[in-house]
Amino acid sequence: MELKIKNLSKTYSNGVHALKGITLNIPQGMFGLLGPNGAGKSSLMRTLATLQQADSGSATLDDLDILKDKAEVRKILGYLPQEFGVYPKVSSYNMLDHIASLKGISNKGERKELVASLLNKTNLWDVRNKSLGTYSGGMKQRFGIAQALIGDPKLIIVDEPTAGLDPAERNRFHNLLCEIGENTIVILSTHIVEDISNLCNNMAIICLGEVVAKGIPNELTEGVKGRIWTKAIEKDELAHYKTDLQVISTHLKAGKTVIHVLSDNKPDASFEAFAANLEDVYFAEITSRMNSTLV
Ligand code: ADP
After folding, report:
1. Domain limit, last residue, from 158, 184, 216
2. Which of 216, 244, 274 is where one domain is finished?
3. Which residues, given as ranges, of the chain have pLDDT below 50?
4. Same-domain status, 227 and 208
5. I want to staple 200 with a disulfide (CB 3.0 to 4.6 A). Which of 30, 81, 273, 295 is the partner?
6. Is the shortest distance between the CB of 223 and ligand 1 below 6 Å?
7. Residue nearest to atom 14 of ligand 1 (CA)
8. The ABC transporter domain covers which part of the protein (predicted)?
C-alpha cells in the first residue's frame, strides 16, 4: 500500500498559496509531516481527508483516487483533526457506539465487540461511562484515536495530536500510534521535532507550502553531520553572530544563549562541534527560507 501525492497545489480565495506542488510517496507505517505553523500541513491533511478541494495535482492510494472517489476514501479513512470537539455530556462508550452505527455497523453485537476493543486499545475502558467533558487532554486525544479507528481504516491522519498533552500522556499517545502504524499508513502532522524522531520511519519537512526535505530521519540527520557548530554567547551578541554566520537555532541554557550554526567549516576556535540531530536538520531547512524569523 502506498499513498502517492503528486504536484498538489492549493490557493485559498484570499490569495494565500498554501500548497505549492507537493509531491510525496508515503509507504505503510508512521510518516511524519513536520513544518512550522502556516507551512501548509493542515491544508494538506484536510485535502487528503476529502474535506477540501485541491486546485491541481493528484493523490492516489494504490488504485483509489483520493481527490475524486471521496465516498470510497471516507470508508478507509481515520481522521483526527487539530481541533477535536467532543459532546461533553456523552460517555465515550455511547459516543463510539453512535459513531460506529453512523459508519454503517448496524449489528448490535458486532458494535459492542468493536467498541469494547477500541476502549481497551486506547486505555479508556475504565472510564467508558464517564462523560467526555470530564476527560483530560490526553484522554480526549485517545478517544479521538478510538473514533478514528472505527471501520478498520487503511489511512489514518492525525493533525498536531500532542499539543497540550503532558509528557506521560504524550508518551501513552505515541505508543498507541506506533501500534496502529504497523498495519496502516499513519500520517502524523506536527511542529514538534521530537514526536517525529521518536515515532516515524519516514518523514517530510514542509515550509511555506513546499516540501523542503524528505526521507528517513536518520539519513536526513546524516546530511548535516559535521556541519553543526555550537557556542554559548551573551544574548546581546546574537545579532552580531547572525550577520556573519548561518545561525539556525538558539536555546537558553543556564542563563546563557546557546547557538547552533550551520557551516561546512568550524567558524572559529571558540565553537565546538555538535552531534547533529533532527532538530538541526529542521532548523537548517526552515530558517534560510523564513528569513530567520523563527530563531
Ligand atoms: P499549518 O497546518 O502548517 O499550520 P495551514 O495549512 O493551516 O498550515 O496554513 C497554511 C497557510 O494557509 C497559512 O498561511 C494559513 O493562514 C492559510 N490558510 C489556512 N486555511 C485557510 C483558509 N481556510 N482560508 C484562507 N487561508 C487559509
Report:
1. 216
2. 216
3. 292-295
4. no
5. 30
6. no
7. 38
8. 3-233
